[in-house]
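Entry, Tuesday afternoon. Goal for today is a structural model of the target with thiamine diphosphate bound, before we commit to ordering more compound. Inputs were pasted exactly as handed over by J.K., no edits. I checked the ligand SMILES twice against the vendor sheet because last time a stereocentre got dropped in transcription.
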Amino acid sequence: MSPGPALVPLAYSADEARRCVGDDWESTALSAYRWMVLGRTLDARMQALQRQGRVGFYGAATGHEAVNVAAGLATARDDWIVPGLREQLTALVRGHSLVTYAHHLFADDRDPARGRNMPCHPTAREVHYVSMSSVIGTQVTHAVGLGLALRARRDPGVAVAFFGDGATSSNDFHAGLNLAAVQGARVVFACANNQWAISVPVERQTAAASLAAKAAAYGLGGRRVDGTDFFATFAALREALGAVRAGGPPELLEFVVYRMTPHSSSDDPKRYQPADWSDRAAAHDPVGRLESWLAAGGWLTDAARAAIQSEAEREVRAAIAAAESAPPPAASSLTEDVYAAAASRPGGR
Ligand SMILES: Cc1ncc(C[n+]2csc(CCOP(=O)(O)OP(=O)(O)O)c2C)c(N)n1
Ligand SMILES: [Mg+2]
């Protein structure tokens, strides 16, 4: 086998890392790396389980880990995550339990949605992680409504609306950015541009020079950020969140990432991606980039790296075992959580 392409290195001095992340940059970067390894491990395992028929559906976020972890670490408890299709790791970083997430993936009786929602569409109320909608773009306007409510209630939280490059062609993207700008919603728009909307490459999604450039049409600021660079991503999110929290206008951040897996377990990218795509994506692997930066600086030894990897595998295995031992929702529970109480019917049959 060929060794594969060289990683594009992260070129930060320790001082620059401190400027991006803060005085605790070393522990934050290590913690980010741990979470990124967990996300990567979870994706690999779940894609395999889907192929074995043990979970019904899975959408990996492989390649998006730096954005998802930075969002988990840069947001505050009061903030809200309104996800696109791939931000489950953000919910975990914000404190959602991996075991509960596994119950959701197995659609069992301990799934908070009790198997009613499609697997890989979690909701995590306790960490302000709104249920994912597969209907592309609709969450953008939901987040704007949330951001208006936060402002009206003088709530310190900020809503972070995630969406993909494909969603920038949806009506809701345009309506959402316009409304948020005009009304001053407390929202940060975070576009994870993984360069594909299933089989449609981003070049066919827009003729604009960037997705960030679209912000100008609504009178907003837009920034294009390397979403495979944890430091740049964290700094951009922290700055945007701080500015909106301080009463500034909404902002659009475009995180350029590389989708490293099929769109979902129902997709076969060999039918449409160019042959060199996976090599290009591998060169921008966010986990590998942070890992080699940490190793080169002496902050991550081989032994620590191996320990982090095996701990992630242990955690994922334990969560799967817990989920596989839980019963499915009883058929008789089908209308529970739908009606407030079973209505007694006067003169009913
Ligand atoms: C309104 C709507 N149209 C089409 C689809 C089918 N669909 C599911 S995912 C997807 C592509 C989404 O691409 P993008 O926004 O870039 O997000 P990514 O999957 O790359 O994270 C499409 C077209 C849908 N779910 N909703
Ligand atoms: Mg996309």
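The radius of gyration is 21 Å.
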